[in-house]
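TEACHING EXERCISE
Course module: macromolecular assemblies
Task: Read the component lines below, then compare them to the predicted structure of the full complex.
Student: A.B.
Group: 4
Components provided:
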Amino acid sequence: MGTSDQRFGKIKALSDLTEAQLDALREMSHAGMVHATAALSQLLGHPLSLTVPRVSVVPLVEIPGQIGGDEEWVAGLYFKIRGDVKGDILVLIPWNGALSVIQILTGKKTAQPMALTEDERSVLKELANILTSAYLTVLSNLLGVLMIPSIPGLAFDMVGAVVDSLMIERGQMGEVAMVIETRFENPANGVAGRLIFLPDPESLPGFLDRLSPNPQ
Amino acid sequence: MRKIQVPLASYSLAKSPDVLVSYGVGSCVVVALFDPGARLAAMAHVMLPGRGEEKRDLPPAMYSDQAIEAMLEDLIRCGSVRERLVAKIAGGAQMFVFPLISKDHSQSPGRRNVETVIKKLSREAIPLVAKDVGKNHGRSIEFYPESGQMLIRTLSEGIKEI
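Instructor-supplied answer key:
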């Protein structure tokens, strides 16, 4: 009985990644972020450095704790991924960092942090768009799969509320996510961000097989 | 007074003067059941609507039906009188709106969570005396078994009491 049980039995989890696969993923993510830096610098007209300190695989439910607790204020940008590999990407930028990003990109301070203007919201969406598209382009090329991001949804709110929505949308709390931590830096102010990638369970086996460091 | 944290997919009981708290609630629904006579309350931080599969080993308040049933059982075991119980609920927001592909808001997971909780409370004949649900913002929630007050804090609207 339980076709779902059989199905779940076959599915490999992200937590099953080997050290070698994780390394391959780190390398790809790094390549993706290098791509993103170039795009961002072009957008800004002056260089902006962007580094990938680490790639980790953690349960989604632990992410708010890593960021500073459920009530920490963040900008959360949520993309649905369609194509050969389906899933979700959530870009989390701490509140202060998000306000700095707006200031860097528009040259103006936000007048009302609680009620961003449409333009200010667009700036954050554009930034997350660049990160996500660059990341997916590189992954798509290296893995030979098609992955297309949607237009992002933006929530400027408590991180617990942002992450719980993603868990409910996916119907699972114990799920593990790949967390690509990015830092985009301006000499004056360091801004940290996280890119969280969650392939859908049915897309995972194919995704992980292609991640094998020694493809046949 | 202790603040008892009620994390995602769990529930807790508290007696005055202790306080029950859940921080950063988005599409989840927080359900508080309160017995004014005993100044005893239970609060659940529910994640999904309805009932999960019985055979799976689920967190105690992952699904709304099981959470409400478990709280009722525990409250009565701790001396509550069922006829005195009332409920307050908060949460069920829709945090993200996708301009092109969003489902109709009436089908958002937060909304579905709220509707299922309200139905279950009515089936259990527990009066729902106050609610603060929906919208597009997160909430931090405190429940005081001393008074039956529920305090709700949001980034955009400050503190409100229901």
